[in-house]
Write a structure and sequence with these properties.
This protein has 1 helix and 27 strands. The protein has a 9-stranded antiparallel beta sheet with strand order 8-9-10-11-27-23-22-15-20, with no helix packed on it. Strands 5, 13, 14, 16, 19, 21, 24 and 25 form an 8-stranded antiparallel beta sheet that branches. The chain has a 4-stranded antiparallel beta sheet with strand order 1-2-3-4, with no helix packed on it. The protein has 292 residues and is mainly β. It is 2% helix and 44% strand.
Length: 292
């Protein structure tokens, strides 16, 4: 386990999946600690797929590859390439295991840095191959304790979105869940959304953000404690809590990708919302977690 810290935050990161394990301020734990009865993970990195593939597989160059929901990075061991008191850089490269399910050469570098009460998270994806375009998506899935302080219940908390406006909501459809991008609904965030477990009876509430800067906040308005997830340049934000296995947990998830569509043909080159990188090129992605 790796620890970075400053006068405000103590953050712990696991080498497995480069997954956040703890985010503490003033001795209070903001990050969900995992529970097999509801959701065993804490803050997985989603790579090289966000969401589920139809039949948990895809086809590329006449070969069929099996891949479970959200990709493999969350279960791979990352190498620590740089460690400072307030910053750590970790890296995953393609290997024999990844090439069995994803036939591409890549490097995924993850950086965590604490500044005041904010944790900055950045990903850098590199196509380390010589002649083949890299096709992938990436996302984050951090879960937070709700209520954000020890008093109260889940339903005492609200979600606010800045800018406070109406957004397109992309429904996730059973049995996947698969996306229905062709039929977006409207969701009104001009006012805070009170939390209720039944909000998630059809899986995540997915906002289409059109790559504009958006901050999603979960907190208790009475006690003025909460978490801001500050995003930029991502197409979607998923807001999720387990259902029907209810838990005092809310995930706020910046996504640069999405699950297969309901009409997906399984061909990787046709998959919606995938990024592409030419050989020896890199691309950066970032967001921040701010606690108060």
């Amino acid at each position: 386990m790796i620890t970075i810290q400053n006068d405000d935050l103590v953050v712990k990161v696991s080498e497995v999946g480069a997954q956040l394990h703890s985010v503490q301020k003033d001795g209070f734990e903001y990050l969900w600690q995992g529970d097999p009865a509801s959701w065993k993970r804490q803050a997985p990195i989603l790579f090289p797929f966000v969401g589920r593939l139809k039949d948990d597989q895809y086809e590329y160059q006449d070969n069929v590859y099996h891949q479970t929901q959200h990709g493999f990075a969350r279960d791979e061991n990352f190498e620590v390439v740089k460690k400072e008191a307030t910053r750590v850089v970790m890296e995953l490269s393609d290997n024999d295991h990844t090439r069995k399910v994803y036939p591409f050469s890549f490097k995924l570098q993850v950086t965590y840095q604490v500044t005041n009460n904010q944790l900055d998270v950045s990903y850098m994806v590199t196509n380390s191959g010589d002649d083949e375009q890299l096709i992938y998506s990436i996302g984050a899935h951090p879960g937070f304790n709700v209520p954000v302080r020890e008093k109260g219940i889940f339903e005492d908390n609200v979600v606010t979105v800045d800018p406070a406006e109406k957004y397109q909501r992309i429904k996730l459809v059973a049995p996947g869940p698969f996306n229905d991008l062709e039929h977006p609904k409207s969701i009104d965030f001009r006012q805070p959304m009170p939390l209720d477990h039944d909000l998630f009876n059809e899986d995540a509430v997915v906002l289409k953000t059109d790559r504009q800067p958006v901050t999603v906040t979960v907190g208790d308005p009475e006690h003025h404690h909460g978490v801001n997830v500050i995003t930029n340049d991502n197409q979607f934000i998923g807001i999720w809590s387990p259902y029907p296995a209810k838990a005092d947990l809310l995930c706020i998830e910046p996504w640069w990708g999405i699950a297969d569509g309901i009409h997906s043909d399984g061909q990787l080159i046709h998959k919606q919302c995938m990024d592409r990188l030419e050989p020896e090129r890199s691309r950066h992605y970032q967001f921040a977690i701010q606690v108060f």
